[in-house]
Design brief:
Layout lengths: L6 H21 L12 H5 L49 E2 L5 E8 L4 H7 L2 E7 L7 H8 L3 E6 L3 H17 L1 H6 E8 L24 H9 L4 H9 L4 H11 L4 E4 L5 E2 L3 H11 L6 E4 L2 E4 L9 H9 L3 E3 L14 H6 L8 E5 L11 E4 L17 H9 L3 E6 L3 E4 L9 H25 L6
Parallel strand pairs: 3-4, 3-6, 4-5, 8-13, 9-14
Antiparallel strand pairs: 1-2, 2-5, 6-12, 7-14, 8-12, 9-10, 11-13
Subcellular location: Golgi apparatus membrane
Pathway: Protein modification; protein glycosylation
Pfam families: Glyco_transf_49
């Protein structure tokens, strides 16, 4: 249990962290000139290449309890807050296999991570760029179990943003502070990107724990054009991040997601009951159906309320309009027609019509194939790993009534040039990958 500080002390800590955030934004506004002569607004007009896409921005208060500060971070002798990752030296860490990225495993461990990992059969592993991290509070609130979170920092500026924002998350959201363990991945060029020092000043303003996205947007203005240029020229290492997050889990089963995929409420309790007695012949992966919901809707508390949203046109299967083959094999129709008023988790059905490019979010023992790290950026990152699982003989079992949601009804839009370039590059890599998989397993599914 956390020991609460006196109200006055908590207010002081709140003000001091606000000081830091305000100072960063005011003293280091977005740069309008760099060696390349480009401005930040021009660079920010397009989403960062390879980052998980949320086509409709949710800029409203998250459906979270109105938290007060139930925990606090240490205060140094000079009365400044000890920021998250304060004792981390990024000059040291393990390299990935190609020495392209340096990794700091367990950079910050959740206060109750060991206990929650021991108590839960399932750990949720997720990954995020700095832009998408505002989704984590709702993930942590709904999950309430062990979370292994891999964070990518392109350079020193983004690392500073992460330090302030993760501090904010740990102060504001008890489930993040208790259950979330963070790992950091930085590129080899990290030290060549802009470097600044961190200071504090006094300020009277306060920030709002109900608006993590608004807080993060204010911090992101701190990045200069040089950092954003690097992000545009370099692909986001999604599969490196997934592997780091997976290996950070300490439970028997791993539920691998992206950070903007929100699990249904109370699902960790329901899933633990299921996996206590689950039996699988051979190799199994348990698919959790994913839906996208209109930003005007309230997050569905149950499968029945989700079905009601679908009937109103406020929810639908994930990527149904953008790229149907992404989730089509899940067979949402069958899932939606299964018995109503369910509480206990059970297998709804088995995936029998596996489609090439299928990429469900699933739970499995972490003996599944690694995510191949030659695939970076957009295209073939998740589905290549699921394809290998299928060739290796895994069965995909769809669970009910648990589900996940993604905010925003996504619409098909013209692909930006960078996205098409990354997809084409990964398609060529996949041709080689597919041949390797055939040779490894002596099995060609002819998909």
């Amino acid at each position: 249990m956390f020991r609460l500080l006196p109200c006055s002390s908590i207010k002081i800590l709140l003000i001091m962290l606000s000081v830091n955030i305000f100072w960063l934004v005011r003293v280091y506004p977005p740069a309008h000139n760099t060696n390349a002569g480009q401005s930040v607004p021009q660079l920010k007009a397009e989403a960062m290449p390879g980052c998980p896409q949320n086509l409709e921005v949710v800029n409203k208060p998250l459906p979270l309890p109105k938290y007060s500060f139930e925990g606090a971070l240490p205060v140094k002798n000079n009365n400044t807050i000890s920021l998250t990752f304060d004792n981390i030296d990024l000059r040291y860490g393990r390299w990935d296999s190609q020495q392209m990225y340096k990794i700091k495993d367990f950079a910050v461990v959740g206060d109750q991570y060991a206990e929650s990992s021991e108590a839960s059969l399932i750990c949720l592993a997720t990954q995020s760029s700095v832009e998408r991290l505002y989704s984590l509070p709702q993930v942590a609130e709904n999950w309430r179990g062990p979370l292994s979170v891999a964070l990518f920092s392109a350079g020193n500026e983004e690392y500073i943003v992460l330090r302030y924002f993760v501090t904010y998350l740990r102060l504001c959201f008890p489930n993040v502070k208790a259950n979330a363990t963070f790992h950091i991945l930085v590129p080899r060029e990290f030290d060549n990107l802009p470097t600044v020092q961190m200071d504090t000043v006094n300020i009277k303003n306060k920030y709002n724990c109900q608006y993590p996205e608004r807080t993060l947007k204010a911090l992101l203005k701190f990045r200069t054009a040089k950092t954003l240029e690097w992000r545009q020229k370099n692909t986001y290492p999604q599969n490196h991040m997934r592997n780091v997050a997976r290996k950070g889990c300490q439970s028997k089963y791993v539920f691998l997601t992206d950070v903007d995929i929100i699990p249904s409420i109370n699902s960790v309790v329901q899933l633990n009951h299921f996996f206590k007695t689950a039996r699988c012949e051979g190799s199994c992966a348990y698919v959790i159906p994913t839906f996208e919901i209109d930003v005007r809707a309230t997050f569905p508390r149950t499968k029945d309320t989700l079905i009601a949203l679908i009937k109103k046109g406020l929810a639908r299967p994930f990527h149904e309009k953008v790229f149907i083959y992404n989730q089509y094999a899940t067979n949402f129709t069958r899932w939606l027609l299964s018995k109503r008023n369910e509480t206990a988790v059970s297998v709804s059905h088995t995936v029998t019509n596996f489609e090439f490019l299928y990429e469900p979010f699933y739970i499995a023992i972490d003996k599944v194939p690694v995510h191949d790290e030659r695939f970076t950026g957009y295209g073939f990152t998740r589905n290549s790993q699921v394809y290998e699982m299928y060739v290796a003989g895994y069965k995909f079992l769809v669970l009910s009534p648990v589900f996940t949601c993604h905010w925003g009804l996504q619409r098909k839009q013209a692909r930006p040039a960078w996205r098409e370039q990354q997809n084409n590059a990964n398609r060529k890599k996949f041709d080689v990958f597919k041949s390797e998989i055939f040779a490894r397993y002596k099995n060609d599914p002819h998909l």
